[in-house]
Amino acid sequence: MKDHIDSVTAVLVLADGSAPGITVDIDYAFSTLSTVLPRSLASNTAFMFTNVPDPSLSNFSGGIIPDVLKDARQFYFDNPIARLKDGSRTVDLRASEQNTLEMLKNLFDWLDSLKPQPMTESVSLYDSSQIIDDKIADILANKDQAAIIQANIDEQTTKLQRPPPVSLSHCYHLVLELYADWRTNRGLPPTPRVL
Prior knowledge:
The protein is mostly helical. It contains 6 helices and 5 strands; from the N terminus they run ββααββααβαα. The chain starts with 6 loop residues before the first strand and ends in a 10-residue tail after the last helix.
């Protein structure tokens, strides 16, 4: 974009309006789009939702579209060929074709009304966005590494706080030998060994 595009007249986001709900890819695309587009280009952005015979049947609710693009134009395109494959009647197909032609006319009228917007701000925002994404990725990686180190520290601390297992058997045998020597030195009979 830096090297080849000085200005942009419009951004048209094409999405399947019949897709069930939002996907991770769509969410990422919308958040990236809202991050890199300058506010001046937001008014030159529109959504075209395909496979939607009626706007009320679109699976894209207002909550999916980023705030900066809430007022963006929305065009609904019903694919008449796909409907023909579904076994739609010819009457429905003609109505769908007429609606599609009207939508395309509205789209081209909207495009003709727009003024080109310089891309310098958009490229700068995109570069800034990439730097931020890289820093976030580094922070998350460091956070994961810190969590692993903290878990190891906690484990070692727990081990150190437990009293070590002590074997007194060698002390017991030493005491018995000393006691036996003491009895011998006193002239007493040796004590019977107990195992």
